[in-house]
Write a structure and sequence with these properties.
11 strands; alpha+beta; 12 helices; 468 residues
């Protein structure tokens, strides 16, 4: 028989306390708070003895976080750089626009000044008897040009030494300010002894010596460049003789015979300037497009505009309007200037290109006193025997310029027939000039070209083209 002792309240409480203590011990020592999933998930790698240890996945979690941080930093850096670049571009663009406005204002002011100042200028030909000829410079490469200058430097050095030696005898000599050892050695090799102290100019400097053009400065300039400042903007004005160049208006003439002879002149000009025959042909075709718009005539008529009103006459435009039209057409998109501006090979610092010797502003006459050889041969293609006529003119004008066409015919009576046929396309005094104005401020350089017809103090503007 089994006897059960009745459980008192005190006994029940004591048993519950033991059970609670046992559960606590089991929860800390044996029970897994984070059991390992069967597929080895995020918490794989826990100890199985009931004690919880730090999961190994936390280490890989830190690597992912670091990688994400680096990616975010790179993105932020890229965004910051992009924003900084855009801000810098905006600042640069604003500064460029401000510099452009200043430069353009100075260029426009320089143009107004040049058009006003040219009225008082008088362009005269210089005496060329003791100076090298400019007619064939375009045919010389760098080595030939330097040799040409060396020969002239020797002559100038002799004259300078003799003049200063005479001044020494009279007590008015100047001390030598240059170093001419190379030139003196070259002269001594030729049997000419010169005292270096008698030379007043350093002829070895590259900017001292150049071949003067018909007006004194380099061809085709009629005067030395005019330089001045407007505020902080540097302005340069250059005036060139357009009558010393070959006019392209010949090739858009309304006379078929003249146009055919002009094509022969263009072929001759292209061979002198080492142009590819295909480029010459393309230029002729481009001029045909301009010819379809407007044809050139040596005897243009005034243009009447407006409607006739009772008691009033129509408004008549001057003949120079035709020249303005041709100037605009020649500088349009019809002509490929990239080919014309291509420099000749091995010309050094000199800029020799077909464009330099072509007149694109509507002129049609060539000044026989200022044109180089190939331009002279081009204009006398209209009369024949162009090569011989050009050579005679070059030889005679070196001694004395021609006053008028009659003097030319009297001097070259053997070629009077050729001169007669070319009479409408030649002159002995230039009236057509191009004025180039360049303004530089900061990093911006703007320029404009104005063309005028100048007869004495009377100046007729033809066209003004502005470019950046």
């Amino acid at each position: 028989m089994t006897f059960r002792i009745p459980k008192t309240k005190k006994m029940k409480n004591t048993r519950m306390m033991k059970k609670t203590r046992t559960m606590k011990n089991n929860s800390l020592s044996k029970t897994k708070l984070y059991p390992t999933p069967p597929d080895g998930g995020l918490f794989a790698g826990y100890e199985g003895d009931g004690h919880c240890r730090k999961p190994t996945a936390w280490k890989s979690g830190r690597g992912v976080a670091l990688l994400l941080t680096l990616v975010i930093l790179m993105v932020l850096t890229t965004i910051t750089y992009s924003l900084t670049s855009r801000v810098a571009q905006v600042k640069h663009r604003r500064q460029y626009l401000m510099d452009y406005q200043v430069s353009r204002y100075a260029c426009d002011s320089g143009t107004k000044y040049a058009l006003s100042a040219i009225k008082k200028m008088d362009f005269k030909l210089i005496d060329r008897r003791d100076k090298p000829d400019f007619s064939d410079l375009f045919t010389m490469n760098r080595q030939e040009y330097e040799l040409y200058l060396d020969e002239w430097a020797q002559k100038l050095a002799q004259e300078d030494a003799l003049e200063n030696a005479y001044g020494t005898a009279n007590g008015t000599a100047k001390n030598s300010s240059g170093e001419n050892e190379d030139l003196i050695a070259l002269l001594e090799e030729s049997g000419i002894n010169i005292d270096p102290n008698l030379l007043t100019t350093d002829y070895s400097e590259p900017n001292v010596l150049f071949v003067p053009g018909p007006y004194g400065p380099r061809w085709p300039n009629v005067c030395e460049p005019i330089k001045f400042d407007i505020g902080q903007t540097n302005v340069t004005i250059e005036i060139t003789d357009e009558n010393a160049k070959m006019p392209l208006t010949w090739l858009i003439s309304d006379n078929d015979k003249v146009r055919k002879l002009a094509l022969d002149a263009l072929d001759m000009f292209g061979s002198w300037m080492q142009m590819d025959p295909v480029d010459v042909m393309n230029l002729a075709e481009q001029l045909e497009d301009i010819e379809d718009i407007k044809r050139f005539t040596t005897k243009p008529k005034p243009i009447s505009v407006g409607r006739r009103v009772r008691g009033k006459r129509n408004k008549t435009l001057p003949i120079t309007v035709h020249t303005t039209d041709f100037a605009k057409l020649m500088h349009g998109s019809s002509i490929d200037f990239e080919v014309l501006t291509r420099p000749l090979p091995d010309t050094g610092d000199r800029y020799e290109s077909p464009l330099k010797y072509l007149a694109l502003w509507g002129s049609h006459k060539v000044n026989i006193n200022t044109a180089p050889r190939h331009v002279l041969e081009a204009v006398f293609t209209f009369g024949g025997e162009a090569e011989y006529v050009a050579e005679e003119i070059i030889q005679r004008r070196h001694e004395k310029p021609f006053k008028d066409i009659k003097e030319l015919q009297d001097s070259l009576y053997r070629y009077s027939e050729s001169i007669k046929k070319s009479k409408d396309y030649i002159t002995t005094s230039s009236t057509f000039f191009a004025i180039k104005i360049t303004a530089a401020y900061g990093r911006v350089k703007t320029w404009a070209v104005a063309t005028v017809i100048k007869q004495g103090k009377k100046v007729q503007p033809i066209a003004v083209i502005s470019r950046l």
